[in-house]
Amino acid sequence: MEIDYVTSSVGSLNIGFLNMLHLAAQGDDGLTEYNWRTQKTKDSKTQAARTALEAQTESGFRIFYPSEQTVKASTGGPENAGTICFQSKWWNSPSFPKKVMRDCISQRRGLLMHNKIIFAREKEEFIPDEEGRSKAWVYVGSANCSESAWGKLVMDKGTKGVKLNCRNWECGVVVPLRRARAMGLYEVSESHGRGKGKEGLGMLDGVLTIPMQYEDVDVEYRGKKPWFYVER
Fold first, then answer.
1. What angle do CA 75, 103, 126 make, to 5 degrees?
2. What is the C-alpha to C-alpha distance for residues 10 and 84, in angstroms, rounded to an integer?
3. What single-letter DSSP state applies at residue 217?
4. In this structure, what are the phi and psi dihedrals at residue 166, rounded to the nearest 5 degrees?
5. How far apart are CA 189 and CA 125, in angstroms?
6. Which partner for 166 in 65, 81, 151, 154 could form a disulfide, CB atoms 3.0-4.6 Å apart?
7. pTM of the model
8. 226 φ, ψ (degrees, to nearest 5)
9. What number is the average pLDDT over the span 217-232?
10. CB-based contacts of 100: which residues, under 8 Å, 6+ apart?
């Protein structure tokens, strides 16, 4: 599963948290990551599965957050970027997954974005099944890319059961790519070379509104640094 996460705030992330989100996007209930994290004895099979997932996450999970350069070049400039938040101490942490970060540049020239969107799709070519269904979907809501927004499974000391520790109230909707649209994209792709076989977010071009520039989706920050509002 390929994940492109557009966010206006980034938390203190690590690869374990991104693994949890990556698994959840594929229907996991969160217990896989929880069991890995709390397992006292690390057997070779579990470790191999975890290592494989980490590699998939690093290559298939991208977080779109603006660089300092993008904010300074915007029409409103730094003084209008107060709702775009990230801290340098998190960015500079050895455990922060810098490889997944991408510069978030709006399709609307000079404007900054305050979106919280997740684009999820199959890694393979965009081909629906015999009934026209696809695994592509989009989350649109209020949840930024942080543990505060999505929570963390922990052991409840009272019940000894698993509970979700979540500090924020969030809201959002998941919009699936409907069968008719999936089949329509597939038919267009066969006649015009659009959709089928096209990589990255281009698979959904014309089906969903993609608010940021994504032509260089596989290009990392290239020496840029993220926007840190408190250090402006």
1. 120
2. 9
3. T
4. -130, 125
5. 11
6. 151
7. 0.87
8. -65, 165
9. 84
10. 18, 57, 58, 61, 62, 63
Tokens of 210: 């993609």
Report the C-alpha gap between 10 and 63 in whole angstroms: 9
Integer Cα distance of 227 and 80 in angstroms = 12
Q: For the chain, what's the residue count?
A: 232
In sequence order, the β-bridge partners of residue 173 are 140
The predicted-structure confidence for 1-58, as pLDDT tens digits, reads as follows: 899 999 999 999 999 999 999 999 999 999 999 999 888 887 888 889 989 999 999 9
**196, 186 Cβ separation under 8 angstroms:** yes
Beta strands in the chain (DSSP E): 2-6, 61-64, 101-102, 117-121, 137-141, 152-155, 162-165, 172-176
